[in-house]
């Protein structure tokens, strides 16, 4: 290919291979999943007979362990993928109910156990050895009980885990399970999910994962996955991808030996002089800071590739290992921070504003300060008489194409208001004692603090819709990571910089009461 | 270095770094272990205060999970290694007894459980959804019980597993536990062992292991491990090592991501035209068969490097994957066989012979046929009058330096007798329904058959002491692996070739009654 041809190729727009939606909905993209998958040898497109798939599931579970299982396992996973959404759901219900544990066996063991006398502590100290044999009856029944409390479907999970391609298949099955639970709360499916999730957490322990630095030298089949799964800032073309893997940038992924060539989660890092305020300067920073001058590692994107691994916190370990690695490699780097989206801010704000419209000004909290209200009404001349500040804000924020971003005047008026509300949303709004925002919760539980809010940091359609263009830097301060994580974990305390607290208080604290 | 210098270096005798004894006795070589270990950062040589180590163990278990654990884990493992054998034993007893499970909590949950009504099957079919919510009480208590049945020491194991170097440390701890059990049967230590073993089996599932072909291009630090741990046929010098990794040879190991640069188990393979009859032709086969002419892959050595992983069957998966890999790479290879030692034969035979000496000819089984008895007495002129054949055999077999192997006459007389007894030992002698010989049991449970006995196949001191120099070929016949494994597993049936059965029957069946 000549130079011009190459230039065109590098610039041509990339279409991700599979749509990555925030909401887990694996059932719908299963056919695509199949095409992407390199490990799953699935070629059949038409749905198989339900009874036949059910039969193959039964064989996998009940077969004696020394027989040839591989064929049965392949047959089952191929059959499963061929099923419609309804039939998969039906099959998983059968699995959860008919391959559960044997409750009468559990009860028998319990009866034996309750009949045993617990030796008391004093005796143990004096006649250690003698007591020991007394305890062996306990040990025996406890071991048997542990086994009896394993549902029969554990065999299926275990066998799939050691079967080539099986772990990835299990992740797809879990995505289906999550999608069923999202639709309907079925106790047996929830029990199935919680069991599978615990298994996945064990199997995907960081001890089993390889940290791989992803570079332009990696196979195209792996890079393709990065393009497909980059969920935060979509990769637009090959130049964009190459830049993210090139000078002044790093990309690291966790790879499991049994899902080779496909990171389960990956993180993109920019090496910079300062903590960036806008995503534009990260994505289009050209030329990059010379690496020897960098003092900051900015984590600007973290994406997981398997919706079925929701709740298996791989990101926490990944961030810690990457910090450790970068620090070891480049001792000059001493700031570790993110430039993160605030995915829930607008949704929260709009629902607050809308509830005022519905329930009227008396019954709802006015989230605006008087001076903010005034500034909004002043700025928006089109407002009907009697419209409140909250109504004006709702109206403007929901206007098509984010028109407010085209008016410098509105932008100036909005800036302090949205920054204050955003700081409130991040620092004060909680659900079950944890930050309401999912990304905030993720970084806070890892031990980060909320460092700085950045106005107009992401002007993309997605950025404006999610958070009015605001982005936030979470700071990983090495000396404090453990303390902050501990405080957040035990009391729900959210660590934020004075800068962020200032947004919440200002401007009325210093306001002149006469004005 | 000049050519001559290199030649001397390559030929100089290698001394394995740590003695590898068959009997697991980790406690004694812990200090050596420490020097070999690359991952364990242990430098303290003097024993630490017992109370202090016990305290650090307590911190690791009881610390809140978000605090800094790494320091505590390092302190504990360093402290543990510094302890004497007695103190380690004491500490493990404390771990087993004081960090056990909470039995009254288990009982409380049981009481709740027994109080629940089991919904009967019919109802489930008719009102699936309704029953489902009825079951949720069961699911809840079952989940709680699973957790309550986990001993407190599980936390220690789990934390060590995800800590760098922790898995290797746990393998050392298990070796110590096995050594305690070998000395004394303590129920609580046995319970500790069985729990740790199950954990290790989960963590070391083949899905987490990487199959690595070990070559001369591998780091010296890895090759050093091969030399140190080759337990079957010690590697004598660098030329020997290089040959085992060179043309016509293969060496594969399983590596766990958290114990890098050190295979947990490795297998050595020779590519040959025929199934070898002696180990000499494998180890000193020069020049090797051109690889394109090879039709046989001969597994001549399999060694595991961690005594603490006894009972975690990694070898089975390793052999299967190696067969698969070799077959894929070299389609001309269609024989897969071992040339294996028979480690228990002499021990078994000598104890049979000795029991005759002790209890006299009337109360013990005469394991010799009349014609064998005669042949022995004829051949051994030094025998005292009245000495039986068994006594003569015992006498000769236990003579210093295996003198019998220097008499052609004795060798000729011994050959049919020892081959017959060896076939009987391998095929008929069992313990709990399994082959008495440990290596036989290993290959039989993997689905191999006993193919051929080879006379004077290993004339080394070790070979003569273990099995009178006899070696055996176990054959892995791809079509039958699963069937044979299944038969052995369920009925204890040992598959052997007609050749081997012939040894058991001959020669008396065709014997002339007059002679």
Automatic annotation (TrEMBL), chains A, B:
Ranges where the Malonyl-CoA decarboxylase C-terminal domain occurs: 208-476
Top-level EC class: lyase
GO terms assigned for molecular function: malonyl-CoA decarboxylase activity
GO cellular component, one term: peroxisomal matrix
Record flagged with keyword Lyase: yes
Enzyme Commission number(s): 4.1.1.9
PANTHER family: MALONYL-COA DECARBOXYLASE, MITOCHONDRIAL, PTHR28641
Name of the featured protein: Malonyl-CoA decarboxylase
Organism for this UniProt entry: Helianthus annuus (Common sunflower)
